[in-house]
Design brief:
The chain is 40% helix and 15% strand. With 369 residues, it is α/β, with parallel strands linked by helices. The strands form four sheets. It has a seven-stranded parallel sheet with strand order 3-2-1-4-5-6-11, with helices on both faces. It has a two-stranded parallel sheet with strand order 7-10. It is globular and about 70 Å long. It starts with 6 loop residues before the first strand and ends in a 15-residue tail after the last helix. Bound molecules: nicotinamide-adenine-dinucleotide. Nicotinamide-adenine-dinucleotide binds next to helix 1, helix 4 and strand 5.
């Protein structure tokens, strides 16, 4: 399947991960891309300027909840595959306003599934056989895992990891809405036979990440001498994956994954939030020192009240995708984080332009509204 050129409909292709997928598809494969994106605050076509002139790239500004518009896109572009990334993705925003998350993540996925099913059913047998609906999801659907501080380990002293068969137990409106969409996708496979693959990935970081998320927020606040907020003690553990490694994994699953299967994707990089922030500060101390007498960027670290319902630990067992599809991440946390910090140092104008006035790095999701 990977040998022939495919037309791939990418939803959410102007977002952080979606734009990495689109850049990878255009730069490193022979496939064509139709980017379907509503362009919410999180979607930025500037993240695609390096590839948007390609004759293999097309853009459709469409809301996935708009059934008629989605149907038109299928009819006009005749895709071979769908990679569905469009979502509301920020946990703190989901605490302040869950409605948009139910609408886009649950209702929007339903609308897309129905459009895909109607389209798939009328394809000829050979195109029908290779069609896939690839649903991109998160490890947050699994809830959280025991933390080393809880002293809950198995007989070998190992802490458990999320596998493809871990039971769902989402904690936030965001993760609950993603869990709902995962269930819909699997139900459309089981009930209607729609060919699907699902991936659940850990926390991503890298270039073009909207500045409300931890890593870009810390880099940009540090450069402006602003406080670096740490929720609670900062001992929450996340399993970090460089976004370009995720993009490579996604294209591999979309084109070579087995129909009906789920693949967990992660970087084997469990880090406490405080450790992530301290590492960013020491890279910045080296690459962009604060100046004589100003001290280290780590002096700006400020502890703030924790997020309500904050999951304590996520960690992915990514053995299946490695064993079955041969994927391994190319970046370590250290190399990926250094590249990321350097990218933000080199791309300050992008950062200024995506913060259009509606978001100024203020605290969201304290659960106080
Ligand atoms: N960021 C992570 O660490 C992470 C980890 C695992 C999985 N995921 C999943 O990957 C996907 C992409 O995440 P991201 O971080 O790139 O998100 P993002 O918020 O950066 O981008 C989301 C994109 O979807 C678009 N969008 C939102 N609502 C839409 C709608 N109704 N119709 C059409 N387009 C719409 C936005 O304009 C934006 O371009 C999401 O499904 C998310 O759940 C993210």
């Amino acid at each position: 399947m990977q040998d022939s050129a495919l037309k791939i409909l990418v939803t959410g292709g102007a977002g952080f991960i979606g734009s990495a997928v689109v850049r990878h598809l255009i730069n490193d494969t022979i496939h064509s891309v139709v980017n379907l994106d509503k362009l919410t605050y999180a979607g930025n076509l500037e993240s695609l300027v390096t590839v948007s002139d390609s004759s293999r790239y097309a853009f459709e500004q469409v809301d996935i909840c708009d059934a008629a518009a989605v149907k038109r896109v299928f009819a006009e572009h005749q895709p071979d595959l769908i990679m569905h990334l469009a979502a509301e993705s920020h946990v703190d925003r989901s605490i302040d306003g869950p409605g948009e998350f139910i609408q886009t993540n649950v209702v929007g996925t339903y609308v897309l599934l129905e459009a895909a099913r109607a389209y798939w059913q009328q394809l000829d047998e050979s195109r029908k056989g290779r069609f896939r609906f690839h649903h991109i999801s998160t490890d947050e659907v699994y809830g959280d895992l025991p933390h080393p501080n809880d002293s809950v380990a198995d007989g070998d002293g190992e802490l458990p990891l999320f596998t493809e068969t871990t039971a769902y137990a989402p904690s936030s409106p965001y993760s609950a809405s993603k869990a709902g969409s995962d269930h819909l996708v699997r139900a459309w496979h089981r009930t209607y036979g729609l060919p699907v693959v699902v991936t659940n990935c850990s926390n991503n970081y890298g270039p073009y990440h909207f500045p409300e998320k931890l890593i870009p927020l810390v880099i940009l606040n540090a450069l402006e001498g602003k406080p670096l907020p740490i929720y609670g003690a900062g001992d929450q553990i996340r399993d970090w994956l460089y976004v370009e490694d995720h993009a490579r994994a996604l294209v591999l699953v979309a084109t070579q994954g087995v129909n009906g299967e789920t693949y967990n994707i992660g970087g084997h990089n469990e880090k406490q939030n405080i450790e992530v922030v301290q590492t960013i500060c020491s890279i910045l101390d080296e690459l962009a020192p604060r100046g004589a007498g100003a001290g280290s960027y780590s002096d700006l670290i400020t502890h703030v009240s924790d997020r309500p319902g904050h999951d304590r630990r996520y960690a992915i067992d990514a053995d299946k995708i490695g064993r079955e599809l041969g994927w391994t991440p190319q970046e370590t946390f250290e190399t990926g984080l250094r590249k990321t910090v350097q990218w933000y140092l080199d791309n300050q104008p992008w950062c200024q332009r995506v913060q259009d006035g509606s978001y100024q790095r203020e605290r969201l999701g304290a659960g106080l509204e």
